[in-house]
Amino acid sequence: MSDKKTVSPLVASWNWFWFEQIRPHSLCLLRIFFGFTLFLKFTDATGLYRIERITVKLPQREAWPISEMLNAWYMPYPWLGWLPAPSPFWFARLEELFLILSVLFTIGLFTRIVVPLTAFLFTYVFFLSQWNFYHHMVVFLCALWPLAFSPCGRFYSVDALLADPARKRETTIILPIRMIQIVVCVIYFFTFVWKFNSGWFTGRIMQIFHEAGSLRGPVGAAMSEMMSYQALSLGTLIIEGLLPFGLLFPATRRISILFGVVLHLVIDLTMAVNTYSYQMMALYIVFIYPESGATVALYDGRCGMCRKSRRWVNILDWFRRVTWADFRDPQVRAMVPQLTDDKLDKEMVVIDCTGKILPGFYGWRYLLSSFPLTFIPSFLMYIPPIPWIGKWIYKFIADRRNRSCQLGTEDLDPNDAWRRTLALSQAAPDK
Amino acid sequence: MREKLPENYSRGGGLNYEMPRGGIFKNFVIVIFLVTLFGLSIRSQIVNESRFGWGMFSRNIEYMILYQWVNADGSRTLYKPGEELQGKARQLLPKKGEGREVYRNTRYDIGTIRRWIHGYLGYLYNNARPTDAIAVEAQFHYFLDQLKSDPTPPVIEVISYPEK
User: Fold this and answer.
1) Residue B126 and residue A363: Cα distance in Å, rounded?
2) Which member of A41, A171, B45, B145 has the greatest number of CB atoms within 10 A?
3) Rounded distance, CA A398 to CA A43, Å?
């Protein structure tokens, strides 16, 4: 139905929020990372607190409590009583099937069948067993269904290698991303509400966890010795309370993701929470700009050092955030008339997906905060006097770089996100 | 993803907007999604059951459960679970020498464990009921957020199947 009509701003906002047309790179990245958490689930390779003892079981049988419980009894919902429950034999076959599906899911082979089938089978076992008591299982469910109805295999998949390249130009609605964004915010909000009790305010709950042996591993032991129980519980409470709002607003999103990642790493280093921490960290991908290559790094194509830097950065750029554009390329140069030759010659300029211009040190800091491996350390570059020292070091190196190396320019895709970013930058403020 | 609504969307009190294909169905899905997500989360708060409500680790409950058959004459027969349990469920039973009254931990709040017990009682009643039993009961002893040094006695609840 294609019906052009005039609607109120409220309806337009609603439609824009849920139905904006995008190219779904971030959904495809989510498929990879979330698929990997599925793989971890079905092999029991989880728990940083026991990192030296982790073994991969193909498939693992014991960590699914319900698999054994199903041998004897289970608790189907009355309205699902008509569904046939798998016998222990078939449950074991299902485990093996899930393991295979998680691999196909991650690499993106037969995605159109594999992702819905995984979601369907997962839901079947979820409602027929005690899986529905486990929160990380609910998180799987909440993410699997939006992925099942999205083109999450269009990029970064084996399917993408086999498919018609023209399909990559097609756009899709943002709906699955929005759904998962809301799920993540709701999880944090209600987790916070649940913990809004005296046990968490006073730190008593952490003391109980410690007494019960729930704070595990060397980090758990060190934390319970070095920090007060109240500091630990209040810290958790504050982060979980702020995250839903911080993630919601673009201005606070990066710092919120930082706190979220740190929180989940600490939880996984100190407690047995199965795949929950990895799932939540993977889900943060829905908060990044959906289209890859929308951050533009304008570099000097004559500079050998710039070329080397680009190579290193590309290794770190797992989410394919950055498009490298030689500012000496006439079509690129024409799109950034607000930047002078002198400025571009002196330092590398990064333009973020909103069109904001970040020169030199600020550009590098932004790039490093866009890559998974350098994401956490990059925030140290905000702490004084590191920005001041960083700018000085950047200038020192930039002034001494070798410009004699003549290199060919990259072929830029004329329809890619970089073009829109450069257009946006013409109206955006300089750093 | 633009981070704010494009300007032309809000100009002049109205605008031209092309509805996505299947817009009505998609809007219906969105409404169902939001109602389910928020509805289940709020329900879990009301019934104190963390399932689907993201209440993990909110409280610590140490609990112990004693099961008994309620006979037609009103007498009780203690029932030791175990024969029907396997794997991890069996591992959670008291080990040799631990006696019957072994406390376990959960962080899924009190409503969840009540539901869990109720489900198990339902299974017992329908699959392992002695001929003269008319119901099955669980004595649920628990400490809520209690340190080991705290001398307060446990709270005791009785959960029956079928419910009285």
Assistant:
1) 67
2) A41
3) 48
Task: Say which of B14, B87, B145 has its CB closest to residue A6.
Answer: B14
Angle of CA points B9, B12, B16, to nearest 5°: 50
Distance (Å, rounded) from C-alpha A430 to C-alpha A64? 54
CA separation, residue A110 to residues A117, A152, A153, B160 (Å):
11, 11, 8, 49
Handedness of CA A18, A245, A149, A416 (dihedral sign): positive
Closest Cα partner for A186 from A123, A245, A267, A254? A245
Average pLDDT estimate for B103-125:
84
Query: Is the pLDDT reported for residue A417 higher than 60?
Result: yes
Q: Which two tokens stand for residue A61?
A: 């049988």
Which burial class, exposed, middle or buried, applies to A262 when counting CB atoms under 10 A from its CB (0-12, 13-18, 19+)? middle
Longest dimension (CA), chain B: 80
Cβ-contact B59, B110 below 8 angstroms: yes
And the tokens for A387? 């920005």
3-state secondary structure of A84: coil
| Coil vs helix vs strand at A359 | strand
Tokens of A276: 């929950």
Q: Residue A129's closest CA among A95, A177, A172?
A: A95
Nearest to A282 by CA among A27, A92, A69, A105: A27
Q: Which amino acid is at A301?
A: G
Q: Which residues contact B93 (CB under 8 A, 6 or more apart)?
A: B81, B82, B85
CB A260 within 8 A of CB A245: no
Picking from B3, B33, B109, the nearest residue to A354 by CB comes out as: B3
**Model confidence pLDDT, tens digit, residues B1-30:** 444 444 444 333 334 456 677 788 999 999
Of A75, A135, A193, the CB nearest to B56: A135
Strands (DSSP E) contained in chain B are 15-18, 61-71, 76-79, 104-106, 133-144, 155-161
> Strand A295-299 to strand A322-326: parallel, antiparallel, or no bridges (unpaired)?
parallel
Q: How far is A280 from chain B (nearest CA, A)?
A: 13
Q: How far is B83 from chain A (nearest CA, A)?
A: 9
- Two tokens, residue A366: 């932004």
